[in-house]
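Course exercise 7: structure representation. Students receive a sequence record and must write out the corresponding structure in token form. The form below is the worked example handed out in class, using ATP-dependent 6-phosphofructokinase (966 residues). Read each field label carefully; the graders check that inputs and outputs are placed in the correct fields and that the protein name is recorded exactly as given.

STUDENT ID: A-19
EXERCISE PROTEIN: ATP-dependent 6-phosphofructokinase
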Amino acid sequence: MTVTTPLVNGTSYCLIKAYSQDSYKQAIEFYSKFLALDDCSTDNTTQTTTLSNGSISLKIKLEEDKTLQSKTESQIQFLKSIKDTKDWRSHVAESLVFNTSNIMLNKDTLTTLNAPTQSFPSDLFPMQLYTIDPLGNIIGVTSTKNAVSTMPTEPPSTKKAKFSTSTLPSKVHSFTDLSYRMQTTNNYPSLPGKQIIDPTKPKKAIAVMTSGGDAQGMNSNVRAIVRSAIFKGCRAFVVMEGYEGLVRGGPEYIKECSWEDVRGWSTEGGTNIGTARCLEFRQRDGRLLGAQHLIEAGVDALIVCGGDGSLTGADLFRSEWPSLIKELLENGRISKDQFQKYQHLNICGTVGSIDNDMSTTDATIGAYSALDRICKAIDYVEATANSHSRAFVVEVMGRNCGWLALLAGIATSADYIFIPEKPATSSEWQDQMCDIVAKHRSKGKRTTIVIVAEGAISADLTPISPADVHKVLVDRLGLDTRITTLGHVQRGGTAVAYDRMLATLQGVEAVNAVLESTADTPSPLIAINENKIVRKPLVESVRLTKSVAEAIQAKDFKKAMDLRDTEFVEHLKNFMAINSADHNEPKLPNDKRLKIAIVNVGAPAGGINSAVYSMATYCMSQGHKPYAINNGWSGLARHESVRSLEWKDMIGWQSRGGSEIGTNRVTPEQADIGMIAYYFQKYQFDGLVIVGGFEAFESLHQLERARESYPAFRIPMVLIPATLSNNVPGTEYSLGSDTALNALMEYCDVVKQSASSTRGRAFVVDVQGGNSGYLATCAALAVGAQASYVPEEGIPLEQLQQDIETLAESFESAKGRGRFGKLILKSTNASKALSATDLAKVMTSEANGRFDAKPAYPGHVQQGGLPSPIDRTRATRFAIRAVDFIEEQQETIAAARAADDDFKLDDKVVSATATVLGVRRSHIVFNPIRQLYDFETDVEARMPKVIHWQATREIADHLVGRKRVD
Ligand SMILES: Nc1ncnc2c1ncn2[C@@H]1O[C@H](COP(=O)(O)OP(=O)(O)OP(=O)(O)O)[C@@H](O)[C@H]1O
Ligand SMILES: O=P(O)(O)OC[C@H]1O[C@](O)(CO)[C@@H](O)[C@@H]1O
Ligand SMILES: [Mg+2]
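STUDENT ANSWER:
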């Protein structure tokens, strides 16, 4: 493809952000070549400035008639060559900005400007394009799929991380680019909290329905769709009882909905608009009625939240639409005007199903909540199983998909699992299961947990029932065995934080998708990929999903597995490695077996024990010797104990809260780094895994800097971030932050209920998290808090005044109706002057009788009890990746280890062998501690310089109608 459209009619700039002189030079080279700017020289066409946020910018001035001729093929070759030859990600700049200051932008121009990215394979070229208007506002953002993974994110700066809506976001990732899109849709100017109404256009009517099995989070999805639609100047409708409501029609089933109608829904389980499995809709006559009723209600677009079946139905409905309306016209059931007006059915899917069985999305709304119910149930069952030394066969849901069984198997360290994707012959599974269970028993395990997915089958497709498994455990092993079928408990209760956030953000995106689609746009499905909300073609997703079931039916299990995402495959491999640890012959030969130590540093966080358990069991299955450094660095300096981790000592650790090996905040330098080196030398460690938060980050930095003096530290070292504050540089996600978020959210739900029961009552909840507003921000989104105050923003008095007014108005309009309890979340460090108690007093006083506010302190409850399944399963994944990393880096560091004390370490070796494991867009990446510490960390504030949850705040604000004072 060749793009020959002029970049702009006038002078234009290409603005490149870079983070150091080195990366800046690289960036010039890279982007000059990318833009085919052969004549671009740094002397006469470029000019550099240092932006107020500290990044170095480059402006390449283009000639008036310069055209952007993307020679796609040659550029792809160029990108390939860069990719093959060097780690370009760590050098090139992160974003490319077209500053179109001289032109009025319209949608076509935007498309044109963004066109080049679309022709590039996204894995080759991570890039974001920001289009900015003459005032410097971002009015268009396009990011390629895998944009930004291991790149440095900020320039060196001593400035504290601050949010600002007036500066460019230095990255747009995870859930975050949504708010920018919200501001840009239809090019309406918008402010969070204000409605966007274009008086020249008729209001669009958007309907939402839930269908198939209910799933936790559906209510959040409906709430977000209704409010987002209203926010964008549309009418919002709900279709009651799934497709049943379409077939029946009328205002009782297709209802217009107001902003207030969905108040408080985020905190409620099930689906408040009802769902059904509707046989009539499977018939054409049923769909014909559905079409007629939608047209009668004046609905332009339908958003369906449901599973694979519901979305198959939606797709069929869309494809039949022209023939349905034709028939309706011919039979006189709709008028000619209606026929003309409703030519196209604008349809969009959001995937709500606990099964997590939809292809093209990593998670479906409800799946993690169901997993939470399963893990809690198994944790409970363990207690009684242990008392009687019994075996339990637990049946979990999932008709064609083993995701729930697999993830529950990892999170509860079950002995064996049955999933439809990986069946064995009857004799194979019987032998294998009995072998593993017998070995676990012989090593002292008093409980046996076997998880059977509802759709489990053997290789000849015969269903495997819990009774079949029960029989084998009794007959062959003589175990006292019980069956527990969890059933609909799995769909019960309220949604976990992840599902509330996912459902809310997908709802927002679904409305965007509907508003942006034209008659030619294929119906989208809103998915989450790589931690980012994306649109996928609905038809293709449905087709792929069906093909998994077909592959299983055709006994092509390899294909079925290939069609599952790579994370599923990795989880399965991990489960098999850790559940058969210390039993089978280790994988690696003797000379490759290592001594690997693990240490916990900092405050306890959910998932720390799971990381230790998984690291140790995986080490055993590989043939390594795992050691625990007890009670952190101070423990080692005092030589309290270094112990070799044994399988039988760790039974049950995977599911336990706290830190079994002990933790504290002392860093190596505080403890006695010389003594620590001595013990490293004594035990001859070949690798180190540190699990913890900012003190752990400091620890890794100190050990890495001390390598020149202490050869014992010349080993591969990995930090697995674990802290509820989620403030470790280099990752978007730290272990423990999900557990904490859920603990805080549950606390808030309870407090909100109390507030709702008392007229005119708000609670100010004090939130932990150090200088990081992550917890407060995400909890605010999950519980629908009226406002959140975070350290990054402080508590500006004008904003506080505005929030009090908004609250007062809201209470006044409530007139005592239900669900009107209000929450305000305040990070402890948002203000040193105002505690939650003070803030509550100020609010009460300023409200002048219109409402009152009380403080609430969840305190250390936020560290959570049992770790959440997300933290447990991620801990396993991280720990195994860390061990793999230590194996891989042995060679890199071999020369340094062999050298004497004065050896000068090569920078490459330093970078490669002391790293922080992080999640960036759900890619697991390893970032050198030196890079992170020197360039991406505000050490004083104990924060990364770039905050990745900024846009989540804006969405949270506008979904509750909070007005921002800029
Ligand atoms: N092929 C189809 N044609 C028309 N409608 C369909 C079709 N498949 C499903 N539907 C409609 O969608 C409804 C829900 O489908 P299904 O029972 O398969 O649940 P689901 O959406 O897959 O959710 P879950 O599996 O999570 O329960 C069906 O009752 C039916 O009304
Ligand atoms: O609630 P119902 O209609 O009995 O359906 C149960 C099915 O729904 C699901 O919960 C979701 O598809 C499946 O896991 C289960 O097989
Ligand atoms: Mg289904």
